[in-house]
């Protein structure tokens, strides 16, 4: 007998304004319980210290969460000069204190060095894995393991404020960029050390900031539904964004309903005019442009499905 999954089957993306002081996974579990969702996953962890945009995918949308992991991000950060910590943020222990002898000109010249594509060595206090374990697990045991540098791109970094040994900046960066590491490296460039005291993610891909909701707002809607004796879904589900917003930057290939059945079954099809070989595409069907998955154009110019949406009809 098949085990019945707890929760309801819902598909879509919710933009949660993660609060400080809890992990991204804790945020995910709270939101999953509020929506009573069968399946959910987040798209790129934020440190407990950090706040801001955390897209959470429900149901079939989890198949496309990797595209949000790979997308650009925007942050606002405040760094304190003069103190270096073991985690590069204020949650860690101060390991070195130095005098701050920095003027604005020197600071701006050092910040400029981060613009463009560079190599970054991830912090030991990150969720990257080494031999099956997360780096921060080693770090908490006082063990340092080798980490490979990674190519990152800082598209823009703007100095907003420099006062009282505090530096406030806005950054637009590529996937996999650790803002804590940028701040730590900046502190070493300046010769005084630095660590993050405030970090807020203000953007993921092209998602609208105004669609972010807090856990408190979601909980209030849940209570409102109880008070009005209506299903919570009536108030909560309108907050969901369509699952294909996770792949909105991919070029669209629209196919006719007659060949959609083959795509849903994982078979390559001739879709007519398509982009160049190797291009990942968003697949839609018919005049309604129903989103059914993501594919890639193969060597023969065929549309080969890679991740396909399963609905009640296709599951039967």
Outline the structure in words.
With 316 residues, this protein is α+β, with helices and mostly antiparallel strands. The chain is built from nine helices and 16 strands. The protein has helices at 24-35, 65-69, 104-112, 135-140, 179-190, 215-228, 233-236, 257-264, 312-315, and strands at residues 12-18, 40-42, 51-58, 73-81, 83-85, 94-97, 116-120, 129-130, 133-134, 150-163, 166-173, 194-204, 252-255, 280-285, 290-297, 303-308. Strands 1, 2, 3, 4, 7, 10, 11 and 12 form an eight-stranded mixed beta sheet that branches. It has a four-stranded mixed beta sheet with strand order 13-14-15-16. β8 (129-130) and β9 form a beta hairpin. It is globular, with a radius of gyration of 23 Å. The mean pLDDT is 90.
**End-to-end distance:** 18 Å
**Secondary structure: helix percent:** 10-25%
Unreliable segments (pLDDT under 50, ≥5 consecutive)?
Answer: none
Strand content: 25-35%
Which structural class should the secondary elements be placed in? alpha+beta
Could you spell the SSE succession in H and E letters? EHEEHEEEHEEEHEEHEHHEHEEEH
User: Tally the helices: what do you get?
Assistant: 9
Q: What gross morphology would you assign?
A: globular
Round the mean pLDDT to the nearest integer and report it. 90
In angstroms, what is the radius of gyration? 23 Å
Biggest beta-sheet profile: 8 strands, mixed
What's the total count of β strands?
A: 16
């Amino acid at each position: 007998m098949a085990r019945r999954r707890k929760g309801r089957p819902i598909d879509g993306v919710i933009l949660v304004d993660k609060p400080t002081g809890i992990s991204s996974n804790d945020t995910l579990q709270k939101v999953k319980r509020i929506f009573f969702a069968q399946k959910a996953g987040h798209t790129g962890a934020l440190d407990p210290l950090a706040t801001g945009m955390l897209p959470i995918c429900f149901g079939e949308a989890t198949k496309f969460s990797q595209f949000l992991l790979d997308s650009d991000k925007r942050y606002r950060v405040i760094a304190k000069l003069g103190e270096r910590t073991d985690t590069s943020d204020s949650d860690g222990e101060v390991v070195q204190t130095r005098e701050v002898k920095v003027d604005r000109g020197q600071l701006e010249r050092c910040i400029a060095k981060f613009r463009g594509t560079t190599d970054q060595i991830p912090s030991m206090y990150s969720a990257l894995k080494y031999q099956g374990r997360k780096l921060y697990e080693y770090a908490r045991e006082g063990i340092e393991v080798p980490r490979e540098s990674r190519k990152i791109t800082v598209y823009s970094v703007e100095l907003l404020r420099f006062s009282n040994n505090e530096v406030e900046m806005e950054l637009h960066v590529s996937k996999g960029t650790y803002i804590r590491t940028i701040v730590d490296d900046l502190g070493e460039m300046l010769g005084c050390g630095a660590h993050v005291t405030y970090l807020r993610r203000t953007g993921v891909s092209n998602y609208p900031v105004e669609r972010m909701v807090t856990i408190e707002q979601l909980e209030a809607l849940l209570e409102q539904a109880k008070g009005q004796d209506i299903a919570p879904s009536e108030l909560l589900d309108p907050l969901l964004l369509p699952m294909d917003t996770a792949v909105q930057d991919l070029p669209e290939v629209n196919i006719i309903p007659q060949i959609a059945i083959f795509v849903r079954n994982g078979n390559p099809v001739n879709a007519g005019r398509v982009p160049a070989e190797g291009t990942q595409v968003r697949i839609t069907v018919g005049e309604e442009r129903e989103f059914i998955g993501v594919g890639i154009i193969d060597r023969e110019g065929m549309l080969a499905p890679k991740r396909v949406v399963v609905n009640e009809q296709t599951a039967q």
